[in-house]
Write a structure and sequence with these properties.
disordered C terminus; about 35% strand; disordered N terminus; globular; alpha+beta; ten-stranded antiparallel β-sheet
Amino acid sequence: MTLSKWLLATALATGTLAQAAPIVNLFELGVATGKNADYQAVGEHNITASIAAETGTLAMYSVRSKADANLAYMFEIYADEAAYQAHLQSPQYQAFLQAAPGILTEHKQKTELVPRFLGDKKIAPSADTRTNLVVVEVKPPFDQDFYRLVSAAMHQSLQAENGVLAMYAASAKNAPHRWYFFEIYASEAAYQRHRQTPHFQHYLQTSAAMVQDKQFIEISPMLLGNKGYLNFQAAPPQTEATQEYSK
């Protein structure tokens, strides 16, 4: 698909390009011993019903840690704050809340994220689907350069690689130099092909001097649901110099 066709598909699917920054959240949840099946069932109901019925619920992804089967993650994207609040009042989310005390442990962590780049295709997950979760600490002087590098690489990956299904980059609201990457590939082979592409190799080489720490969280998908054809790119972050000039 050419770039122009991809952008047209995005506009048709979403009605227009995002006017306000979407709401992006990452949840880390402890699942009680012996309750994995219950958690998966109530999560599946929440995700499938929300994607089908809620116009502003754009993506909901349930994954679990490969190292600890009782540690789950939810990565969610909503069109705006109103859409997120509508989801919180939905019957399926209320059912999740009611079931949670008997399924989850006290380990509950919510990370509010500021979207930087959000792009995806309509996902039809299979047994081969691969998901990645990566946390990157960026050296403060490189915020703008890192943003431009990431946006260009992700945009090109979605355009040129059929096996790249979703690429999301966001920074923590309370720690702007900490970036979170959530990625979905059609298969392990698609991911390995992606790693060999010139644009990914350029990203790796160029970003090396910008990054002070990187954590790769090994995860496996449980249930992946999205509207598809999301295309959001934030304005570049301001440096201290540009912030001072704009005062």
